[in-house]
Amino acid sequence: MKNSPLITILLGALTLSALASLVLCWLWMSSVRQHRELARQMSLVNNNRNVITALANDTLEYSKKNPAIDPILESVGLKPAKTAPTATNKPSTK
C-alpha cells in the first residue's frame, strides 16, 4: 500500500483547523472574560452615580431648612450662586 499525498494534505489541514479552533476558542473566552469585567465596572459606576445623585438631592433638601450649607453647594455647582441685585440703568434726564 502506497502512502498517498492526499492523506498527508488532509492531515495537515486537520491539524491547522484544530489549531485555528483552539486559537479562536481562546480569543472568544478572553473577550467574554473582558466583557464580564467591563459590565461589572459599568454596574459599579452606575451604582455610584445613583448614590451620588441621591446624596446631592438630599443635600439640596437639607439646604432648604439650613441655608448655611449654601456656600458649599454653590462651590461644587449644585446650586447657582446668589448674585446681588443689579442696579437698573435710569435714563438720563435732559
Can you describe what's shown?
The protein is mostly helical. It is about 70% helix and about 0% strand. The protein has 2 helices and no strands. The protein has helices spanning about 5-65, 70-75. The radius of gyration is 34 Å and the shape is elongated. About 0% of the residues are buried.
Give the arrangement of secondary structure elements.
Elements (H helix, E strand, L loop, with lengths): L4 H61 L4 H7 L18
Question: Can you tag this structure with a few keywords?
Answer:
mainly alpha, 2 helices, 72% helix, 0% strand, elongated
Short description:
With 94 residues, the protein is mainly α. The protein contains 2 helices and no strands. The relative contact order is 0.05.
Secondary-structure-derived class:
mainly alpha
Strand segment tally? 0
Fraction of residues in helix: over 70%
Quick check: average pLDDT?
A: 90
Estimate the global geometry from the Cα principal axes: elongated
* Biggest sheet overview: none
Computed over alpha carbons, the radius of gyration is 34 Å
Tell me the β content: under 5%
From the N-terminal CA to the C-terminal CA, the straight-line distance is 124 Å
Q: How large is the count of helical segments?
A: 2
Extract low-pLDDT stretches. none
- Following the backbone from N to C, one meets helices and strands in this order, namely HH
